[in-house]
Write a structure and sequence with these properties.
Elements: H1 6-9, E1 41-44, E2 47-49, E3 56-57, E4 59-63, E5 66-71, H2 73-77, E6 85-88, E7 93-96, E8 98-103, H3 105-114, E9 116-117, H4 123-135, E10 143-148, H5 161-167, E11 173-177, E12 182-185, H6 187-193, E13 205-209, E14 216-222, H7 226-229, H8 238-253, E15 257-265, H9 267-278, E16 285-291, H10 295-300, E17 312-320, H11 350-362, E18 367-371, H12 374-390, E19 399-402, H13 408-417, E20 420-422, H14 427-430, H15 439-443, H16 449-454, H17 472-481, H18 498-504, H19 507-511, E21 530-533, E22 550-555, E23 558-562
Parallel strand pairs: 1-6, 2-7, 8-15, 9-10, 10-11, 15-16, 16-17, 17-18, 18-19, 19-20
Antiparallel strand pairs: 1-4, 2-3, 4-5, 7-21, 11-12, 12-14, 13-14, 21-22, 22-23
Helix pairs in contact: 3-8, 4-5, 8-9, 11-12, 12-13
């Protein structure tokens, strides 16, 4: 990797501001009406759901990548000139482009390019895929895989050392769980990492052991993964990162996503996003949260939340408090069902989080902390409350990434402090088989969109991809029905309406990145980001929302996906 150069990163982003302070967000005032302005493009005869100042419209006019008029067909036709392109929508439904407020696009794109996709339905199929990759990999070199999910395989069990040794005995193997908080390794990987069956568990992590033999199973949890990450020779070029961004951009825009919040980025990924944009390969806008290990370097370089341009912007600082919902390591006040001594894992407690968060907070950074369980969320809230007491800031927009298992006290405190939750949007539908370990009673307070909205809290839509699928139509169905793919209902009390789900997935996502005045709705002066649907979600059976096709996706006035 080339060293981070903050000046270079912004050469093309905002060239006129080289001598200016870049910490101020891009202009947030809504543009005035352009009554006499010529339109580059008009969309006519649509069912346009704006989520904005005008609830619905027939047509829009676009110029220079922004909406310059929203209204009736007759009103918009007045802006048509000889050079204006016209598209008849034929009554199709148009929504603002969807915003995925917590995902991992950069690293996911690179994984799709370089690693074995283990989203397969049996351990044998996974072994075959690893074996094929090993056959084309020099002996002694690492074989890496991602998106493995124990609950999606026919065997319904975890991968073991024996499984991985059998298919790649001469290669070190690391397979990441889809949830991103555990990995599975073979004997050679353990040897290279200096891990033996007697190695103690590190703080905030665990080596899974067989209860009878006390030997390691190959499953590695949370901070224990660091021992392996340190010895894997990740050798990715600048072009590799750009190609990964290009790939994931195509994958996400195909589903109607026009903006994404990278939930754990780095200076290198900031550059990759900008490289992709300058090369014409970025079809979505990126708000890049920066992992806490980079924060000192970023602060010393004079960088803070909000810097960048309309396509690539520096986001919050990201830290992790507890474990994963999909991997059942979130830190809970009550144990997992069937596991009376298992309360999950605290990755970073208050004392570890506070000094890092304080430094970022005082440097005007937004902060986002991964917290799933109610204990993790309480710890995070105590931290945010202390930060505001010690160093009060206007509108810090603290984020709780995932914010899964809540209670009334946590809701009250979040409302009082203006905290933004980013709950999983597709988990109920896609990961229903995991919900049994939480139980129906606890599910009443998980992915709690209804509770958030009723309290006036701006919850967002978030996939966390790869842990959850990023398709917005799946998010809508999951949020509206609270029903999994097999028809089981989990926490019906948290259902929201179709309109609320769309609002969560659009304007609320923009608010989470301080961009509610520039995107998130189809309004005058905002970025022309929208999606054309094959059917009207307001007239659709809620149980089939996931099947609504995406016909077109537009970002900045340009079609980035067309069926």
């Amino acid at each position: 990797m080339q060293p981070f150069n903050p000046t270079k990163m912004f050469d093309h982003a905002i060239p006129q501001s080289r001598r200016q302070f870049l910490g101020t967000l891009a202009t947030l005032s809504v543009a005035p009406a352009f009554a006499t302005r010529e339109a580059d493009l008009v969309l006519l005869n649509g069912n346009i759901v704006t989520m904005g100042n005008t609830p619905s419209a027939q047509a829009v006019a676009i110029a220079d990548g922004k909406f310059i008029a929203v209204g009736t067909n007759d009103e918009i036709k007045n802006l048509v000139t000889g050079r204006t392109r016209k598209i008849d929508l034929g009554g199709k439904t148009v929504l603002p482009g969807f915003i995925d407020a917590h995902s991992h696009p950069g690293s996911s794109g690179l994984n799709h390019l370089r690693e074995v996709d283990c989203d397969l339905r049996s351990i044998k199929a996974i072994q075959d895929a690893i074996r094929d990759r090993a056959a084309n990999t020099p002996k002694g070199s690492w074989v890496l895989g991602f998106k493995y999910d124990d609950t999606k395989t026919a065997e319904g069990r975890f991968l073991t050392i024996a499984d991985l040794d059998a298919c790649a005995p001469e290669h070190p193997v690391r397979i990441s769980h889809r949830g991103g908080h555990t990995m599975y390794v073979n004997t050679l990987a353990m040897k290279l990492a200096g891990v033996t069956h007697e190695t103690p568990d590190p703080s905030g992590g665990m080596f899974d052991r067989d209860p009878a033999s006390k030997k390691m199973t190959g499953r590695v949890k949370e901070s224990a993964c660091d021992a392996f990450e340190k010895v894997i020779p990740y050798a990715y070029t600048r072009n590799d990162l750009r190609e990964g961004v290009k790939l994931i951009s195509k994958m996400m825009t195909k589903t109607g996503v026009t903006s994404v919040h990278d939930a754990y980025g780095s200076p290198e990924y900031l550059r990759a996003y900008q490289d992709a944009h300058e090369n014409g390969d970025l079809g979505l806008r990126v708000y890049c949260l920066i992992g806490f290990t980079h924060i000192s370097k970023m602060i010393d370089a004079g960088i803070r939340t909000g810097m960048g341009n309309e396509w690539v912007r520096v986001g919050a600082m990201k830290m992790t408090c507890d474990g994963s919902i999909s991997e059942r390591t979130a830190r809970l006040s009550q144990p997992y069902l069937g596991r009376p001594n298992d309360y999950g894992i605290m990755v970073m407690d208050f004392d570890k989080l506070y000094p890092i968060a304080k430094k970022a907070h005082e440097a005007d950074w937004q902060i986002g902390i991964h917290a799933n369980g109610d204990v993790g969320i309480d710890t995070t809230m105590r931290l945010y409350e202390q930060l505001q007491k010690d160093y009060p800031r206007k509108d810090p927009r603290f984020r709780i990434e995932h914010c899964t298992v809540i209670n009334d006290d946590l809701i009250r405190r979040m409302k009082n402090l203006g905290v933004i939750p980013t709950p999983f949007s597709t988990y109920v539908y896609y990961h229903g088989e995991k919900m049994k370990e939480y139980g129906p009673e606890r599910l009443k307070n998980m992915f709690a969109l209804r509770s958030f909205l009723d309290a006036g809290i701006r919850a967002t839509q978030a996939s966390d991809y790869p842990p959850g699928p990023f398709e917005p139509m799946m998010a809508l169905q999951s949020s509206v029905t609270r029903t999994d793919i097999k028809g089981t209902v989990w926490g019906a009390n948290q259902k929201v309406t179709v309109e609320e789900a769309i609002r969560i997935g659009t304007i609320h996502g923009a608010y989470a990145s301080y961009e509610e005045n520039t995107k998130g709705s189809i309004d005058l002066g905002k970025h022309a980001d929208l999606v054309v649907l094959g059917r009207d979600p307001f007239k659709e059976d809620p149980s089939t929302l996931v099947t609504i096709p995406i016909e077109r996706t537009m970002t900045g006035g340009k079609w980035v996906w067309e069926a």
